[in-house]
Design a protein that fits this description.
The chain is an alpha+beta fold. Helices cover 18% and strands 41% of the residues. A seven-stranded antiparallel sheet has the order 3-2-6-9-10-5-4.
Length: 175
């Protein structure tokens, strides 16, 4: 059936058309962290989702060139730091600053052999690597949650159409 659909299409979406379509879906903003040779590493990631409640599984998608791919594969541990609405500067830092500068002056800690937990995160999820698979130009990493910490009930930071956003209260209908 999929072959029939593709054969009827003149062309599949271009990368820019696909990015525009996917940008229509608002997503939360996270910073995924791990360790490389005892030093913390991290990157801003918006491709994050819950997978299962039993066992507790989540996934993150990392571009194949992301500096987290190798440390997660080697160390088998990573953390998901979910950002609150006021985390834009932190998200930009972990997206654009040179890798060696991302943790400079940034407060974090870890528990046992867990991943780096950013003190500014509103929610933290410590994970062990469950599985991973290459899908196109990304690595889909599935982690099993081994510890969670809810640090704030502040509204989340969102990413929509290539920009940061926050939740807005929807207009209420009369009646």
């Amino acid at each position: 059936m999929a072959d029939q659909l593709i054969s009827r299409l003149e062309a599949v979406p271009t990368a820019s058309e696909w990015r525009l379509a996917m940008g229509g879906f608002a997503s939360g903003v996270t910073i995924v962290t791990s360790w490389r040779d005892g030093a913390p590493v991290g990157s801003t990631v918006s491709a994050f989702s819950s997978v299962s409640l039993d066992p507790p599984l989540l996934l993150v998608c990392l571009a194949l060139g992301n500096p987290l791919c190798a440390p997660i594969a080697a160390g088998k541990v990573f953390g998901v730091n979910i950002l609150a609405y006021d985390g834009q500067d932190l998200a930009k830092r972990f997206a654009f600053a040179p890798e060696s500068e991302r943790f400079v002056g940034q407060a974090f800690h870890s528990i046992g052999r867990g991943a780096p937990q950013l003190d500014q995160a509103q929610v933290f999820i410590d994970c062990i690597l469950h599985s991973s698979v290459i899908a196109g130009d990304h690595l889909v990493v599935v982690g099993q949650g081994v510890r969670t910490e809810q640090l704030s009930s502040a509204p989340p930071l969102l990413h929509h159409r290539g920009a940061f956003a926050t939740l807005a209260e929807a207009p209420r209908s009369a009646g």
